[in-house]
Design brief:
Blueprint (H helix, E strand, L loop, with lengths): L6 E2 L2 E2 L4 H17 L8 E5 L4 H14 L2 E6 L12 H15 L4 E5 L5 H15 L2 E6 L5 E3 L6 E3 L9 E7 L4 E7 L6 H9 L2 H12 L3 E11 L14 H20 L5 E6 L6 H4 L4 H14 L6 H13 L13 E2 L7 H11 L7 H4 L2 H11 L24
Parallel strand pairs: 3-4, 3-6, 4-5, 6-11, 11-12, 12-13
Antiparallel strand pairs: 1-2, 7-8, 9-10
Helix pairs in contact: 1-2, 1-3, 2-3, 2-10, 5-7, 6-7, 9-11, 9-13
This protein binds 1,4-dihydronicotinamide adenine dinucleotide.
1,4-dihydronicotinamide adenine dinucleotide (NAI) binds next to helix 2, strand 4, strand 11 and helix 8.
Length: 396
């Protein structure tokens, strides 16, 4: 079929397998160009199909020759209907891994469920024996709790009072004011249940109880802080409470891994265009001004550059892992640099629909958004008849 982008609100409902494969290859090339990392050899990535999780899988495999198991929740293709982007990303990743002689298997299903945990544990037992590194990179709006069966929904809202600020519709470049009502009822609790640390802890407990973690095993989950411009809706909002919970969970997981000399880390990453971040009001405008500023300064990074740096310079540099006063790894250091934040803030107060393309990197935002779904990728012929029924080798 001829596959074109089809937008519905903040998401694109189609994805292009050839574009997705090209994106994966580019990420692999980047990692290979940076040389070998003395990292772990058996890696489990939960949330492995897009964004930071995919970058973590690629960096593990192609930076450290690791065997990887990836867990994710993606839509397979049907005749005349494309798969979701993460499906095609994974199909391409597994192909490239096979060419390089690397073990890679994937599990598609709800990582919050007992069933998927059980399947993953069985696969580890059968194929890898133990795991040296667990990356926890889920971004989900809902979680059905495995013990109660209750489905919880997270919300992206400020706490206490209404928040009004500028935002952009990145499809048409319209900058406008948006007001977000404060959360109410059980919004905070629900957001913590979905995006906090409980499920991460459950995964680590399950792995440890079955003796599937190696001596010195480590686990890393991803968090975000960001600027004062977005803090009402992000770090001081409902999602920020969930991130506080996730960060606190690192300490309790570290305690339970102590007998293995293992450790849990949270890495605070940079704001990037992903499916998750495009859905948060105000953030896309912040990101387009941030991209412009960081590109001008020559310090812009995407998911793969962030994670490659996290692995090479922080986690597996051979030195002690540097952390901030709250025990977190900071790979958002360049985003949070004073000069960067000052410039973004100055632009924020000037930006309008008319001058956004000059002050901000709206074009870069849009391009990256299309890239997430395999569109607008250089060298791909989008007028060509394309097979949508691409399968993931290990799931066939
Ligand atoms: P993403 O949307 O690109 O990736 C989410 C992954 O989770 C995908 O592999 C998806 O299949 C998987 N997933 C979602 N629900 C699932 C479920 N029920 N079962 C199994 N897999 C499921 O998200 P992104 O942006 O890479 O986020 C990953 C983490 O990084 C999140 O914790 C996020 O808060 C954090 N982060 C994101 C930043 C950003 O700007 N995008 C910045 C800093 C941290």
């Amino acid at each position: 079929m001829i596959i074109q982008p089809r937008m519905r609100g903040f998401i694109c409902t189609t994805a292009h397998p050839v574009g997705a494969a090209e994106n994966v290859k580019q990420q692999i090339n980047y990692v290979t160009s940076k040389g070998k990392i003395d990292g772990p050899k058996r890696v489990l990535v939960i949330g492995a199909s897009t964004g930071f999780g995919l970058a973590s899988r690629i960096t593990s495999a192609f930076g450290s020759d690791a065997s990887t198991i990836g867990v994710f929740f993606e839509k397979p293709p049907m005749e005349g209907k494309t798969a979701s982007a993460g499906w095609y990303n994974t199909a391409a990743f597994e192909q490239e891994a096979a060419k390089a002689g690397l073990y890679a298997k994937s599990i598609n299903g709800d990582a919050f469920s007992d069933e998927i945990k059980k399947q993953t544990l069985a696969l580890i037992k059968e194929d890898l024996g133990q795991i040296d590194l667990v990356i926890y990179s889920l971004a989900s709006p809902v979680r059905t709790h495995p013990k109660t069966g209750i489905t919880h929904r997270s919300v992206l809202k400020p706490i206490g009072e209404k928040f009004t600020n500028n935002t952009v519709d990145f499809h048409n470049g319209n900058v406008s004011e948006v007001s977000i009502e404060p959360c109410s009822g059980d919004d905070i609790e629900n957001t913590i249940i979905v995006m906090g640390g409980e499920d991460w802890q459950m995964w680590m407990d399950a792995l440890k109880n079955e003796n599937l973690l190696s001596e010195g095993a480590i686990t890393v989950a991803y968090s975000y802080i960001g600027s004062s411009l977005t803090e009402a809706v992000y770090r001081n909002g409902t999602i920020g409470k969930a991130k506080d919970d996730l960060e606190a969970t690192a300490f309790s997981i570290s305690n339970s891994l102590a007998e293995l000399n293992g450790k849990a880390y949270v890495s605070v990453n940079k704001a990037l265009v992903t499916q998750a971040s495009s859905a948060i009001p105000v953030i896309p405008l912040y990101i387009s001004l941030l991209y412009k500023t960081m590109k001008t300064k020559g310090i812009h990074e995407g998911c793969i550059e962030q994670i490659q740096r996290l692995f090479q310079d922080r986690l597996f540099s051979g030195k002690e892992v540097p952390v901030d006063e709250k025990g977190r790894i900071r790979i958002d250091d360049w985003e949070m640099r004073e000069d960067v934040q000052q410039e973004v803030e100055a632009l924020w107060h000037q930006v309008t629909t008319e001058n956004l393309s000059e002050l901000g990197d709206l074009e870069g935002y849009r391009k990256e958004f299309y890239h997430l779904f395999g569109f607008d990728v250089a060298g791909v012929d989008y007028t060509k008849d394309t097979d949508e029924m691409v399968q993931i080798e290990s799931i066939k």
